[in-house]
Design a protein that fits this description.
The structure holds two protein chains of two kinds. Chain A is α/β, with parallel strands linked by helices. Chain A contains 25 helices and 20 strands. Chain A has two domains: 7-263, Rossmann fold (3-Layer(aba) Sandwich), CATH 3.40.50.300; 279-523, Rossmann fold. Chain B has two domains: 3-66, no CATH class; 147-407, MetI-like (MetI-like fold), CATH 1.10.3720. Chain B is built from 15 helices and no strands. Classes of the chains: A alpha/beta, B mainly alpha. At the A-B interface, helix 16 of A face helix 12 and helix 13 of B. Chain B: Belongs to the binding-protein-dependent transport system permease family. Chain B: Pfam families: BPD_transp_1 (PF00528). Chain B: The chain crosses the membrane at residues 6-22, 27-47, 53-70, 91-114, 164-184, 196-216, 222-241, 248-269, 275-293, 332-357, 383-404.
Chain lengths: 560, 413
């Protein structure tokens, strides 16, 4: 494929400020960026690095509460910083398009997908409605959406997440823009779905020779997509190089540390012989009121001091299993045993002592911590509630817990959750669980909302705490890299059933259950040719949903 | 043409030129638009209209300056966190705060500020203003100024107690309904629907005609207050007691004592007819508060931190007090201000109809009615209590607007 080499977008010494606490604070501190036609640039960095802000600035747009305070943005010979709003607006949608992280939140639920698709071409008078619709169907076809003729005439909620993200990419393509900005388009998707979207995006960008800025915090993903990679840290550029060079030979320490995260690993423990499992889930069926069965005959054991990872895509019943164990959702059939004794199915009927044994850490630390309560009380309350600590004893316990999660007690004691960063909040969530002195903790996707470096810190912390306090974890995740890093045993779930379970080493060596196989092979690797190779091996039509639908029920490995 | 006219236009034009020169866009637009308007008014109405316009502008400027100074004053005396919040207040909110502050002073220190007694007859009927009577006398020869000052105390305290009642009952019921859910939620919801389906004013008239006449005695009002306090207290007991029978018994015992104490306290502060008015207001407005609280709390209840607290084994009372309430205060406070205005207008309206606060107690609503005849003689005195009502309502709304703005998290562009 030949790419013409004229410069499409040139950003020089871009500075953006944000308004907080009655002051303008620098968010972007002089970033340069050059993008040629047909080139894909990957922007990576942790949250707060200014990736999305730069992405928006490439459209000449500054979000609410921010302003472009210096530098120049030149798009195809047009200076965007000095252009009028009307001029800038005429570019957006027609020559520069944007694909947001959450397609579900970005589509208007009140209109059909195709009507939203044709809005831009009609607005810019590029096409008549019928032409635009035909074009949309053509794009759906190229993006390999199922039923391309018909899918556009559905409403956004009638379409699955991965399909919606592809429909959004199609929509961005509707005016054949010169530049598309992808802002974390696959972050909210499962690995299996992620692949379909990645393959579709890459194809279409190639076909139309569109330039793209691909924003993400996932290195493996960006390695598949981008020609060049730019690493950002706190509004400043760390380094930029072509993908191959960046992966093989990162120069800066920060970049190296990003690469190193994926290599976290620990010793696998095995079950103690003949011991009663700490938690035992026995033949559990569960459903939400009036709904269909979400869990179907789920059984597994968790032994003291061990980590059991529960994996599967969203909707496979991982979190529901956690709700059954905690007693939030009493099962229809089956039971949960704690040290061999049955746990009352409804948490209302459990004693304080039983409730104390089993604690939970949530995915979204933002919603898991009450924003109006001080850290000292958030952590202190379980200690006070279960152990009746008061006054100095309580304060000492809180200090001890803050020490345990590696936060300086005097600094955090009187602060409120919104003042903390994502990683710190997650640590507070861990401390709250520890305050109860539990033997068993359910970690529900605890790292999926965090950046890799921060997530690694949390995983290390959990590991250390397990060693020191002999905790058992049930680790719910869809990220297999996390599983590799922390698990002793793995339970794979699909459609509310356990499809395979066993010690980690076994699970990562073939032969697998076809679903496990699909999950494993869908995890992006750091090799830039990984996606290409995978697509060649499996065929374009055998990835994601299509592949999981194609698992043969009579396959001998299924009934194993 | 007089010097005044020349001076007036010269001042306006200089000001607009200065604003334009220093690139103050909004200032320039305001001042110059004002200049253009006064050109037209000057041509149409002549010097006298221009004088009124100037006086009005001066009054506005004065109000703005007072508000600005008052805000700075509050910032200076407030603690750090409070000062930070106050800095975000627009001038209108500062003006509202200032008015509320003035009314509060007038109400609290009424006996010292008012030159004459509340029901003291000191002159002939409708006597004109003189040096002892700032605003003249009313239809019985009582000083209108003194009665307005006393009216602040009576009308505002009554409206405030009524709103508080409605809030305590409504908010408690709403929080409890949101945390409990199920049939309890449904039951409270349907009761509030029934009350809300009756038009407020008609409902008030109905209740007042039942309880207002011969029944307005200490015994009836005590009974009503007691029932109200029991209902409210029962909600607290439901939230606190959970499942143990012992805590129910203790809770109920404490409740009866507290309800009796509260009823006696209210009867010391208010006379029976006022108590009934407060109750009526409380019952009419509680369902509105209930609906809002339930909706706000409903959004909080689904958060993970509530789930975490439930799994810890916390009781409802802890959930309500420590987890839900701190996250719903902002909209509730804003709603309080809004409801206060409605209650205030309802009370004034009922008094105007003769069903509210009974004479000889001074009250703005009834003062408007008593002196209404003066209107036909071109005297604006009856409009003064009406203006007092309007000013307070506007002031409270200014403050509420600011609070709503903050709680909704909207940012100024």
């Amino acid at each position: 494929m030949v790419k013409s080499k004229d410069v499409l977008l040139e950003i020089r010494d871009l500075q953006i400020q944000g308004y907080s606490d009655e002051k303008w604070v620098d968010i972007i501190k002089g970033v340069d960026l050059t993008l040629h036609r047909g080139e894909v640039l990957g922007l990576i960095g942790e949250s707060g690095a200014g990736k999305s802000t730069i992405g928006a600035a490439a459209m000449g747009y500054a979000r609410d509460g921010t302003r472009i305070s210096g530098g120049s943005i030149e798009f195809d010979g047009m200076e965007l910083t000095t252009a009028t709003e009307a001029e800038r607006r005429s570019l957006r949608g027609s020559r520069i398009a944007y694909v947001a992280q959450s397609a579900a939140a970005s589509f208007n639920p009140a209109h059909k997908i195709i009507d939203q698709h044709t809005e831009a071409p009609l607005q810019y008078r590029l096409k008549k409605r019928l032409e635009a619709q035909e074009d949309a169907i053509e794009l759906y076809n190229r993006l390999r959406l199922p039923n391309p003729e018909e899918i556009g005439f559905r409403y956004p909620h009638q379409v699955s997440g991965g399909q919606l993200q592809r429909a959004m990419t199609a929509m961005a393509m509707s005016c054949r823009p010169d530049l598309i900005i992808f802002d974390e388009p696959t972050t909210a998707l499962d690995v299996t779905t992620q692949i379909e979207v990645l393959a579709a995006i890459r194809d279409i960008v190639d076909q139309f020779n569109t330039a793209a800025i691909y924003i993400t915090h996932d290195l493996a993903v960006v390695a598949q997509m981008a020609d060049t990679i730019k690493v950002l840290l706190k509004g400043e550029e760390v380094e930029e190089a072509s993908t191959k060079e960046m992966l093989d030979n990162p120069k800066e320490d920060y970049t190296k540390s990003l690469w190193a995260v994926r290599s976290l690993k620990r010793e696998q423990k095995s079950r103690p012989e003949g011991a009663t499992p700490l938690i035992s889930v026995r033949n559990v069926d569960a459903a939400y009121t009036g709904g269909v069965k979400v869990l179907d005959d789920v059984s597994f054991d968790i032994h003291e001091g061990m980590t059991v990872a529960v994996v599967g895509e969203s909707g496979s019943g991982k979190s529901t299993t956690a709700r059954v164990i905690t007693g939030l959702l009493p099962p229809m059939e089956g039971e949960v045993l704690f040290k061999g004794e049955p746990f009352p199915p409804d948490y209302h009927n459990r004693t304080k002592e039983q409730l104390r044994q089993c604690q939970m850490i949530y995915q979204m630390a933002d919603t898991a911590l009450n924003p109006k309560v001080k850290i000292a009380e958030i952590i202190g309350r379980p200690a006070q509630f279960y152990h009746g600590l008061k006054g100095t004893a309580l304060k000492n316990r809180v200090d001890e817990l803050l020490d345990l999660i590696e936060l300086e007690p005097s600094q955090y004691y009187n602060r409120f959750p919104p003042e903390l960063s994502g990683g710190q909040k997650q640590r507070i969530g861990i401390a709250r669980a520890l305050a109860a002195d539990p033997t068993f903790i359910i970690c529900d996707e605890v790292t999926s909302a965090l950046d890799q470096l921060v997530a690694e810190g949390i995983l290390k912390l959990l590991n250390r705490l397990q060693k020191e306090l002999n905790l058992a974890y049930m680790f719910i995740t869809h990220d297999l890299a996390t599983v590799r890093a922390i698990a002793d045993e793995v339970v794979v779930m699909q459609h509310g059933k356990v499809v395979e379970q066993g010690p980690k080493e076994e699970m990562f060596t073939p032969p697998h259950h076809p679903y496990t196989d699909l999950l494993l092979s869908s995890v992006p690797e750091m090799d830039p040719d990984w996606l290409t190779t995978l697509l060649e091996e499996r065929g374009v039509d055998n990835i994601g949903d299509a592949a999981s639908a194609r698992i043969d029920p009579d396959d001998p490995r299924v009934s194993k | 043409m007089s010097y005044f006219v020349f001076g007036f236009y010269a001042l306006l034009l200089t000001a607009s030129c200065l604003a334009a020169y220093f690139n103050k866009r909004t200032w320039f637009l305001t001042i110059f638009a004002f200049t253009l308007v006064s050109f037209v008014l000057g041509i149409v109405g002549g010097t006298s209209v221009l004088r009124n316009v100037a006086a009005l502008a001066g009054l506005l400027a004065l109000a703005a300056m007072v508000s600005y100074a008052f805000r700075e004053f509050l910032i200076a005396i407030a603690s750090n966190n409070m000062a930070k919040e106050l800095r975000t207040a627009p001038l209108t909110a500062a003006f509202g705060l200032f008015v509320i502050f003035t009314y509060a002073i007038a109400g609290i220190f009424a006996p010292w500020i008012a030159p004459h007694g509340e029901a003291e007859v000191i002159a002939t009927a409708f006597a004109p203003p003189d040096e002892t009577m700032l605003l003249g006398a009313d239809q019985l020869g009582r000083d209108i100024f003194s009665r307005i000052i006393y009216g602040t105390r009576n009308t505002v305290s009554l409206a405030l107690s009524g709103t508080l009642m409605a809030f305590i009952l409504g908010a408690l019921a709403g929080l409890l309904a949101a945390t409990t859910g199920g049939w309890f939620d449904q039951m409270l919801g349907r009761i509030s629907d029934v009350i809300m389906s009756i038009p407020a004013l008609i409902f008030a008239l109905l209740m007042l005609s039942i309880f207002g006449g011969a029944l307005a005695t200490d015994t009836t009002s005590f009974a009503l207050l007691f029932v109200f306090a029991m209902v409210t207290g029962l909600l607290v007991v439901v939230a606190r007691a959970e499942r143990s029978i012992m805590s129910w018994v203790i809770g109920l015992a404490v409740l009866v004592a507290a309800a009796a104490g509260f009823s006696i306290g209210m009867l010391v502060l208010f006379n029976p007819s006022e108590v009934i008015l407060i109750m009526v207001v409380g019952v009419i407005y509680a369902p509105r508060v209930f609906r809002l609280t339930r909706a706000v709390a409903g959004n909080v209840v689904v958060m993970d931190y509530i789930e975490a607290a439930k799994l810890r084994g916390e009781g409802k009372w802890y959930l309500i007090r420590r987890e839900i309430l701190p996250n719903s205060t902002a909209p509730l406070v804003a709603e309080f201000g809004l409801e206060f205005c409605f209650v205030f207008l309802l009370v004034a309206g009922l008094s105007f109809l003769g069903l509210g606060i009974q004479p000889p107690t001074a009250d703005w609503g009834s003062m408007v009615r008593e002196n209404a005849t003066l209107i036909s003689f071109g005297d604006i005195t009856p409009l003064i209590p009406a203006a007092a009502i309007a000013l307070l309502t506007v002031a409270v709304n200014f403050v509420v607007d600011w609070m709503l703005h903050r709680s909704s998290g909207l940012k100024e562009q």
